[in-house]
Every structure is written in structure tokens, then in C-alpha cells.
Design goal:
Radius of gyration of chain B: 18 Å
CATH topology of chain B: Rossmann fold
Structural class of chain B: alpha/beta
Shape of chain B: globular
Shape of chain A: globular
Distance between the termini of chain A: 58 Å
CATH superfamily of chain B: Vaccinia Virus protein VP39
CATH architecture of chain B: 3-Layer(aba) Sandwich
Helix content of chain A: 25-40%
Number of domains of chain B: 1
Largest sheet of chain A: 12 strands, mixed
Strand content of chain B: 15-25%
Radius of gyration of chain A: 23 Å
Order of helices and strands of chain B: HHHHEHEHEEHEHHHEHHE
Largest sheet of chain B: 7 strands, mixed
Helix content of chain B: 40-55%
Strand order of the largest sheet of chain B: 3-2-1-4-5-7-6
Oligomer: heterodimer
Number of helices of chain B: 12
Number of helices of chain A: 15
Largest interface: A-B, 26 and 31 residues
Structural class of chain A: alpha/beta
Number of strands of chain A: 19
């Protein structure tokens, strides 16, 4: 019997990679998800019985995604976990005993208040009268939990809101250093640094000089007005020059949005390499949590776009193969390179040795030199901070391993770091990555909540509500396809307009209006 | 790949005879300046190509393997642990052999991996004593390649396999500029086209069953040398103060050109003792 042409089997147009768990971006209920590769891009797809189907781009270069997977280091168990396993990932944060990695970096958001009201702010901060401002005791409780978990914590980052306007910020930083934290970062928009020389002097005189982690999104006026709401170019330059004057090392942190400032990647690193205070640049695709401009989840910016963008915009210095995934977290989350800089000479460190011979944990069972691997692990980690003694030592060690003589150690002063970090949002959240996250939000009640869970799952809203006593709605991404059901909150972020329950109001992938309940799709949500 | 120990001084080496080339290569690896530029255990392709070589000669657990020009032992350690074989390494450098044996002891695998001082043209092992031989980036530097090939055949069991990765170069296609380069880089001075390697091995009773190009590995290594030269110049390394960095980088650029134009390349060869 011959088969009729209309009964021919056809192949799927995508490669199925994995089945995992995620959340509904609208109601935050834990639901199943699947990851597929199509047209050399990687997507996460999921369906909520209440709110329909969702799909989002995870990585815009599938080959790069696959290649990164071997850079996956076995995790380290923290000395103490803070919660029990009850409902499963991501509802038990954290850290729960099932978490796969310790915390390389702890973030303490000391306030919700800010001296700017940027259109893009994952923390949903601003000139807000109803937020919170942590006390010394609350910060101490968080730091103590971090120390119990880590022993000697690598990095604490004070963030907000705008931490520099918290009246106790210097005391917080001093306390972190006293408790044995090796590196203290101040995550700031730089406004106070530009205008308050007394504060600069105080920062520079802290027993442990902080690293300044400063928002810096580009040079075009439009970049500033769209991302920050104001033209801050002059203030940023002044803040940086003050940092140079007072001997503070700076990481430029660029929030990058597709079609907005993704053409400025090369200019930012060129500027950073030339500026005496700047030791590193961190590029972060805009996190579509909290407050942000409308976006298309299927065409969002990913780490691969930034790697390709740097290679295209800065071909005299970089190409794609100079960037290696960070093995301590899940390798698709973060990529790093270092380069040695002397005037116009820029040499990416990966061109001096075969990084993959050391950081490929899947194929390599014997090491040419374990001490080189150890050094590279410290450099390719979430806690690496250029300009600190620790990073300089590790660069020396890595260079020792390639037989560079003592004198070469002097150029570790000239090392410049480039970090590319894609934080997950309610669309892209994949518990597989979350379970190995090494960047944690430290809360005053002594929890260490993985950053992307904090931003996506509902922890941020929960913690703000607890600390401020003011109810906070569940924040929903400002995705174009959700426009019909979104309401604007008083902070400028979006929330679901009608409490849900009326089925699929958004652009479901298949256009259907209702997705039947799924027996495996029985997750709860946090709130 | 081996660079004359006085990097950047091309005059010294151009007149060197065959014997000098060989000694130069082995001693060069013990010399800081060369180790600096090349990396202690580095050969084109790194560990990935070593692994591929091991798979190409189909190593089986328990087999006895000889590594000719074993250097600090990286290849021997990889083969012993990943392919579960016993390895004897032979190297010309006394210091290198001592260091490699010390590493084997500290890694707790000295029972399976041993290193001997020796010459590729007089391998210090009995007839028919190994199942397989690897030789990475070294055959090109042997002054008497015919003897080296017959030594390989002698120590191999009948049916034994040889895996070679090496620089392949067509001397006939070298223009004047590249001739200078060949004078400066020891292994280029005596590298041959792949067909000639095949012939040399055949002459010793070793039948080549597979050749595979890996020119990218050589290109990457040249680039690594260039990157290191830039890094050393930044560092103002005293040990390298007499180096003319600009000239050294010009040489690297020439070498890169030779690879790009297909005049120099890197090949993997597999041969069998009939």
C-alpha cells in the first residue's frame, strides 16, 4: 500500500535539548520547560495552564552554547545552608541543601531609594517614599549569615537602590572588611562620586579600599536618556576622574539593550582601557526583571551577541575565541577574558596559553599543571576583581605556569578584565542554571538567595514587602506580547492587570486561547 | 616546533650543521628564553591533538607505548591516564628527563610512566618491546630521519603503530624571505613535505595508513608565540633584553604567512609495522 502524499511524516524544525523547570512569567508558578535549538539559536519554551505558552531566546549562538558546556567545574559545598528542601527549586531559596555551588559573591541591597529614576532598573528603585533602608544590625545579620556559610567570603557587593546615599554606607563597608570579607564592592550610579569629594576621600581611606562597580552604558545621548532617563555623560566622566584621583579601581558596568546601545560595546572597552581608574568592564544584557523598556523575548540580547559584538566592534583586539565561560557558575551564564595592556598593545591572556587545556572539566582528567588550573579558576570566577591583590596573585600564578619570568609579574598590574553576564529573568529562568548560581542576594533574615531567583521568582517582592511593610505587587516582565494584560505599578514596573484567572490573554505561541492543565504542571508559586 | 635558543638573532643559526640543529633543539627546551616563548610542554594542537593522536593509533588498555621526545611528560601522563597504557618516554635533555620522572613520582604513576635519557637515533629500548609509538612535533628536527625511522621500526612489535604529528614544509616553495625563517627556526630548517615523511617511514618498513592536516594548530601556535613576544616586551624581561622584538615578530608574521599559503603545515600521520 502506498502512502498518500498528505500523510508524509515531517521532521521537527528544532533540536530538542533538555526538559527542565521554569516559572510562568505572569503568575510565577513553577512549570515545566523545554530547551530547543533552532537556526543556531537556543530557546526555552514552557506553558502555564493559566497564562498560556511562552518562549524566549536563551543564547543566540547554539554552537557557542554547546561548546561552553564542558567548562563546568564541580561545585563546592558551603559550610552551612540556610533553608530546608520543602517545595523544590526555585521555591526554597536559599541556599537549600540541594544547591550545587557555594556563593562566590554576596549582594546586600541596603536601600530602595535612589537619586535617579532610570527607565531601566531591575531593582525597581527610585525616589520612593515607601521602601526600606537597612540598619547596621540588619546588615550585620546578613554578613554573619554569609560568613557562617562561606568561612572567608570572597566578595560582598553593596547595592540598592543607590547605596552611596545610605547614611551608614561607609560603616557597612568597614564592617564587611572587619568580618573577613576579602573584597568589598560598591555598586553605584556614580552621582555621589561625581559631586562629593569628601565622600571620595572617605572611601579611599577605608581600611579595605572598595572596588567601584559603576553603571556606565555608553556615550550616545540617546543611550543615557533611554536607559537612565537623563544625560549623565558629564557626571560619569567626573565620577571616574575622581576615582582616578583618589586611587579607587573601577569596573564599568554596561546594561546593554538590543538596538539601543549594543553598538557601543567596543567604544566602552576602548574608553575603559585608556582610563587610569578603570580595571574592568562588565557587560550585562538588560535584565528583564523589575523596570525596563518593552522588549521581545524571542529577540532579546544574549551573551553570544555581546561576544560577537565585541569581536565586530573591536577587531583590532578581540575575537570570539578570546572569551571563555566561567566554570564556577553554569557556564552559559557568564564569560570572561583578561588582557594585558600597555599603551596600544593589548594581548588577550587566552592567546598566551590554551585555556581549554585547563578549564575543560569534562575531558581533562590530568592536568599539565594543577597550579595553573587553580590560578585560572580564580580568574575565571564570579569573585574575580581586577586590581585586588588576590587577582594579581592569580594572574602571576597563571603566568608562572606558562613560564613567564618574574619580571612579567609586573604586567599583572596592567591586566584588564572583561565580563559578560546574562542574568535570568522570568522568561529565561531555568532551574538547571539557577541551581549552580554563585551570585547571591543576602537578606537581613539570613538567607542567601540566588540573584536570578531573587529577581524572577518573587523573592524581591517578598523581601521588600517584609522590610518596608508596604505591599508589593508581583512584577511581570514588560514583554511586548504581554502588553494587553499589563498594568504599570507605582514604581514604573509592570504587573498583571486583572489578577489572572481569565485564561490566556497574551500572545500565546500557537494562538490558542486556553492550554489544558498538565499533570506534570502542578507547581506552586512563592507568594 | 623548536626555536633556536637565541631568539631574535637569526645570524647565529644559519650556518649550523645537522648535529647542531638537533642539540640546539633539545637544549633549547631547557633554556628559559625558549620555554618562555613556546611554553614548557606545548606543541601545536595542545592536549586535544594528543588525544586525537592516541585515538588514531587505537591505543588499548595495557599496551606499551613509547613517546619519542617526551619533554616534561605531559603527553605520557595523558596517554597513561586516559588510555590506560604504560609509557616510556625518551628525551635528549637530562634535566627534562629528571623533571619528568619526578612529576611521575609525585603523581603516583611512576610504575606506569618512565622517562629515559636517549636519542631518537639510538632508542634505549630492546627490539620489539613496544606496541605503539608517539612522536609529537619532533621528527622534523631529527637530523638523521632515516635512522630514526628504522629505530622506530626496530623497537616496535610486528603490527605495532606509529603516530606522528609534525611540521610539514615544502622547501622547494620557500622564497628568499621564508628561507631566512627556515634558518631561524630549527624545526623548519629540516622539516619535509608529508610525502617525504611517508617515504621515509616506508623505507623503514612502516606503512602510512592515514594522514590528516592540522594546519590550524600550527597557525594558533605561531599566534601564541607572537602574543607572548608582545607580552614579554611589555614586561621588559631582563632575560630577553637582547631580543629584537620587532624582528622576532616579523619572523612570526612570516611563519603565519607560510601557513596561510599552504607552504608550511602541521600533519598527523599514522603508520603500521607490517
Amino acid at each position: 500500500m502506498t502512502m498518500t502524499p498528505d500523510r508524509q511524516k515531517v521532521d521537527r524544525d528544532e533540536v530538542f535539548l533538555e526538559y527542565t523547570k521554569s516559572i510562568c512569567p505572569v503568575c510565577k508558578t513553577v512549570i515545566d520547560g523545554e530547551v530547543n535549538a533552532k537556526d543556531n539559536r537556543v530557546f526555552l519554551r514552557k506553558r502555564c495552564s493559566e497564562h498560556g505558552r511562552f518562549e524566549a531566546l536563551l543564547y543566540s549562538d547554539a554552537e557557542m552554547y554547546f561548546d561552553s558546556l564542558r567548562f563546568n567545574k564541580p561545585g563546592t559545598i558551603p559550610l552551612e545552608t540556610q533553608t530546608e528542601v520543602k517545595d523544590g527549586c526555585p521555591l526554597d531559596c536559599g541556599l537549600c541543601p540541594e544547591h550545587k555551588q557555594h556563593a562566590c559573591l554576596g549582594i546586600i541591597e541596603v536601600n530602595t531609594n535612589c537619586n535617579l529614576d532610570c527607565p531601566i532598573c531591575f531593582a525597581d528603585s527610585g525616589h520612593q517614599p515607601d521602601g526600606f533602608s537597612l540598619t547596621m544590625d540588619q546588615v550585620e545579620a546578613g554578613l554573619d549569615a554569609f560568613v557562617r556559610s562561606e568561612g572567608e567570603p570572597e566578595v560582598v557587593m553593596f547595592s540598592g537602590g543607590e547605596p552611596s546615599i545610605h547614611p551608614e554606607i561607609l560603616g557597612f563597608m568597614r564592617m564587611a572588611a572587619e568580618k573577613g570579607v576579602k573584597i568589598v564592592n560598591l555598586n553605584t550610579n556614580g552621582m555621589r562620586l561625581a559631586h562629593d569629594r569628601k565622600f571620595m576621600k572617605d572611601l579611599s581611606e577605608l581600611p579595605k579600599r572598595p572596588n567601584i562597580y559603576m553603571q556606565f552604558d555608553g556615550f550616545a545621548e540617546r543611550t543615557h536618556t533611554e536607559i537612565r532617563g537623563r544625560d549623565l555623560r558629564h557626571a560619569k566622566q567626573k565620577a571616574l576622574d575622581h576615582c582616578a584621583e583618589f586611587g579607587l579601581n573601577v569596573t564599568l558596568v554596561a546594561a546593554v539593550e538590543r538596538g539601543l546601545n549594543d553598538h557601543e560595546l567596543g567604544d566602552i572597552v576602548r574608553f575603559g582601557i585608556k582610563h587610569p581608574a578603570v580595571r574592568s568592564v562588565a557587560y550585562q544584557p538588560v535584565t528583564h526583571s523589575g523596570r525596563h523598556v518593552e522588549f521581545d523575548p524571542m529577540n532579546r540580547l544574549t551573551n553570544a551577541d555581546i561576544v560577537h559584538g565585541l569581536a565586530d566592534q573591536c577587531p583590532e583586539w578581540f575575537r570570539e575565541s578570546d572569551f571563555f565561560p566561567v566554570p564556577c557558575c553554569f557556564p552559559t551564564c557568564r564569560s570572561i577574558t583578561y588582557c594585558l595592556v600597555d599603551g596600544d598593545n593589548v594581548v588577550p591572556v587566552p592567546r598566551l596559553l590554551q585555556i581549554e587545556d585547563y578549564l575543560d572539566y569534562v575531558s581533562n582528567r590530568v592536568m599539565p599543571d594543577m597550579s595553573v588550573r587553580g590560578a585560572l579558576e580564580k580568574l575565571w570566577s564570579a569573585s574575580a576583581t581586577p586590581g585586588t591583590e588576590m587577582t594579581a596573585e592569580q594572574l602571576e600564578c597563571a603566568t608562572c605556569g606558562i613560564d613567564l619570568p618574574d619580571a612579567l609579574k609586573t604586567i599583572t598590574d596592567k591586566a584588564f578584565m572583561i565580563v559578560i553576564q546574562d542574568f535570568q529573568d522570568p522568561y529565561t529562568l531555568n532551574v538547571k542554571q539557577l541551581m549552580k548560581c554563585c551570585v547571591e542576594e543576602i537578606t537581613p533574615d539570613g538567607r542567601l538567595i540566588p540573584f536570578c531567583a531573587y529577581n524572577s521568582v518573587g523573592y524581591r517582592e517578598e523581601v521588600r514587602e517584609q522590610l518596608s511593610g508596604v505591599s508589593v505587587p508581583t512584577i511581570v516582565p514588560n514583554a511586548a506580547e504581554l502588553r494587553p494584560v499589563l498594568l504599570t505599578t507605582k514604581y514604573g514596573s509592570k504587573t498583571h492587570g486583572n489578577g489572572g484567572g481569565d485564561g490566556d490573554g497574551n500572545g500565546a505561541a500557537d494562538g490558542s486561547d486556553h492550554v489544558p492543565a498538565d499533570a506534570t504542571n502542578v507547581g506552586k508559586n512563592l507568594r | 616546533m623548536s626555536v633556536h635558543e637565541r631568539v631574535g638573532d637569526p645570524e647565529v643559526h644559519t650556518e649550523a650543521g645537522a648535529e647542531d640543529v638537533k642539540l640546539c633543539c633539545a637544549t633549547a627546551y631547557q633554556h628559559d628564553a625558549v620555554a618562555l616563548v613556546l611554553g614548557e610542554s606545548y606543541h601545536p594542537g595542545g592536549l586535544d591533538l594528543t588525544r586525537r593522536l592516541g585515538r588514531s593509533i587505537e591505543l588499548r588498555p595495557g599496551e606499551r607505548v613509547l613517546d619519542i621526545a617526551s619533554g616534561p611528560g605531559t603527553t605520557a601522563f595523558l596517554l597513561a591516564t586516559e588510555f590506560d597504557v604504560e609509557v616510556d618516554g625518551v628525551d635528549l635533555g637530562d634535566l627534562t628527563v629528571a623533571k619528568a620522572n619526578a612529576t611521575a613520582a609525585s603523581e603516583g604513576i611512576a610504575d606506569r610512566v618512565r622517562f629515559h635519557h636517549g636519542d631518537a637515533e639510538r632508542i634505549p629500548l630492546p627490539d620489539a618491546s613496544v606496541d605503539a609509538i608517539v612522536c609529537e612535533c619532533a621528527f622534523c628536527t631529527f637530523p638523521d630521519k632515516k635512522t630514526a625511522a628504522s629505530e622506530m621500526a626496530r623497537v616496535l612489535e610486528p603490527g605495532g603503530r606509529v603516530g606522528i604529528t609534525d611540521v610539514a614544509l615544502d622547501p622547494a616553495r620557500l622564497d628568499a624571505e621564508l628561507q631566512t625563517l627556515a634558518g631561524w627556526v630549527a624545526c623548519l630548517a629540516d622539516a619535509r613535505p608529508v610525502a617525504e615523511y611517508v617515504e621515509l617511514l616506508a623505507g623503514a618498513g612502516l606503512t602510512v595508513t592515514k594522514t590528516e592536516p592540522h594546519d590550524d594548530a600550527l597557525a594558533r601556535m605561531i599566534e601564541q608565540i607572537d602574543a607572548r613576544l608582545v607580552a614579554f616586551r611589555m614586561a621588559k624581561v631582563p632575560a630577553l633584553e637582547n631580543i629584537d622584538f620587532d624582528m622576532a615578530r616579523e619572523r612570526a608574521a612570516l611563519a603565519a604567512r607560510a601557513v596561510r599559503e599552504g607552504i608550511a603545515g602541521y600533519s598527523l600521520l599514522v603508520a603500521e609495522k607490517g
